[in-house]
Amino acid sequence: MINKFSISLILIFFSFAVFSQLPEYGPAFLQDEVASIYITIDPDSMDAVLNSENWGIEREFPANFRYESTYGEDIVENIGLRLRGNTSLNAAKKSFKVSFNSFVQGNKWNGLEKLNLNGSQNDPSMIRAALCWNVIRRAGLPGSRTSFVKLFINDEYKGLYTNVEHIDEEFTSTYFPGSQYSSLFKCLYPATLEYLGPNDEDYNFIQFGRRPYDQKTNDYTNDYRELAEFIDILNNSTLSELPCRLERKFNVDNYLKYAALDVLMGNWDGYAYNKNNYYLAIDNRTGQVQYLAYDLDNTLGIDWLGQDWVERNALSWSNSSEGRPLFERLMEINQYQERYEYYLRLFAQTVLEPETIANISADMISLISEAAENDEYRTMDYGFSYEDFLNSLDSAWGNQVDYAINEFVFLRDSSALAQTSEQEITPMIQGGYMEQLSENAYCWVSGSTNENVNLILFTDEAGQNQFLSRQMLDDGVFPDEASGDGIYSCEVSPEIALEGNRLYYRFEIENINKIWPCEPRLHFLMDENTHFINEVMSRNTASIQDGEGNFSDWIEVYNSTSDVWNTDGYYLTDNIEFLNKWALPELQILPNQFHLFWANELEDLERNYCIFSLAAGGETIFLVRKEDDAYIMSQTLIIPNLQANQSYGPITDGG
Fold first, then answer.
1. Got the DSSP string for 513-555?
2. pTM, whole model, 2 decimals?
């Protein structure tokens, strides 16, 4: 069999100074003014929002939203409003979540489905969380955008709030393009990442009234397999095999950067110390788990545990009385500890350099001072005066505020530098992938190096039969977009005689023998499909009723083989950019048999309902297969404009 294909290869390098790949703040997160948000809600509904019976159950109440700034006014009707937080639920100054899509499906504002309005009631400066998110983003890491806003509910000024970007499928698709429909887990106390057993259901449990590992996107699949695989590798690999196995499934380098920033910011309420407040996102491009920080209010000198976070040893930061395998096992490997020390020292002298922080924090205080002075709710929980606010950069308040912001940064930087030594680190590939679009394949790799980096293709899974190696360049010549932008590419158009429908690839940094992944990764060339989308109906008005008694669109699939079709690993999608949009439920479809799925975009229905409906005027849908994190379109079906109750399919089943 001769498979002809053209490959365009793009190599992307990230360093802490490359910020262009992070999204702009935009009108929803203004940096140069304090915008105003006006919520209008029925008074009885507002009473219900504040009623403790509705705390923690995420019940939302209808309201209207208005956003005013010097750039204009936006109005969104029929939003959802509820309280947010944990311990802050008992605060006099409440924090709120605004949901634009609660009552109008698909509704967004500036590309956002939700906003988090945090009251910062335990912080006399009211800037610690925003300042820490600013640091994370300036370090080149995915981090929530923030801004300051004045909140009014039914025309009453509720005070100054930090507007924090919500981490959801919009967030993952923005920061990890192509992964909108990947799984995202919100990890809260006590999410230790310790091994609990071989079954994925071992991690889908409830403790303290919530799931420590809570699947927040694609939760209709209730699929914990990739999380369980990651935790198994982390805990049960020997130290000698851990780097190879873990880097294939986890972005180690980015986590080491987050860990270094946690220490420098005094973020004790995250993973390493308090087994709390982080997300794990599955990046479907690289097949890796990505660590994301979350909830950064207990930072920069705020302490509730009686610890001195300035002096705590940066090399043994985790809670020594409990297991923290993600931090502790990485620190047992020399190359990872050296990288961690390198990032500690780098960030202490750049994004968290004391003079830099002093200037940024002073600008923030100046920006919000008027809104803070008029915020009566700000004083209700701890009695913070306006003088406390104005002096918060240079004077500790006492009680839970052990250090002023500038004082903490200076002392923590100094102790971190004293506790570590200068390190020289070798280049490291963070992850990569190849994507097939029509006859072209595209490849991305992230890393940091001055050496040549090559793509290597193999005909076998073991990587024994290499047939192609290409160096990638950053010279601005097509397909490279611009010279010197850190994006490397090359184009290869060979005719290759391959038996089968797949090839394998990995990336190599020359001269230092660094490769990723250790075992080559699969890329499909073509698929010999034996499972089909057999028949569809996009205007069902009276044909067949679904299980809810409605006339939903439907999609019928067919197993043309003499073997049982296990649908695990198959997807249906109506968007070529999101091949894993809807995972088929695990079914056993017998030989020459059919199964009908209802196409209804309501995600809260049972698993036999696809999460998208069919366009009555015609569209294209795809049956997709996944293997080893690689996706291939098994079938493309172009649906024409159909009349009511008219189905479309082949004359012969599967033909």
1. TEEEEEEEEEEES-----EEEEEEES--SSS---TTS---EEE
2. 0.92
Best CA proximity match to 77, nearest among 44, 104, 97? 104
Residue partners of 458: CB distance under 8 A and separation at least 6 = 464, 465, 466, 467, 503, 504, 505, 506, 520
253: burial class by Cβ within 10 Å (0-12, 13-18, 19+)? buried
**168: which residues sit within 8 A by CB, 6+ positions away?**
113, 114, 184, 216, 217
Contact 324, 308 (CB under 8 A): no
Q: How far apart are CA 479 and CA 477, in angstroms?
A: 6
Dist. CA 192–CA 190, nearest whole Å: 6
- Contact (CB, 8 A) for 649 and 594: no
HSE on the CB side for 511, CA within 13 Å? 7
Q: Which amino acid is at 545?
A: Q
Residue 409 has which token pair?
């940064």
Using alpha carbons, select from 259, 196, 260 the residue that is nearest to residue 231: 196
Backbone angles phi, psi at 634, to 5 degrees: -70, -30
| pLDDT tens-place string over residues 533-589 | 999 999 999 999 988 888 999 999 999 999 999 999 999 999 887 888 899 999 999
Q: How many residues does the chain have?
A: 655
As given in the structure block, the two tokens for residue 590 are 């017998």
For residues 539 and 552, what is the distance between their CA atoms, to the nearest angstrom? Answer: 8
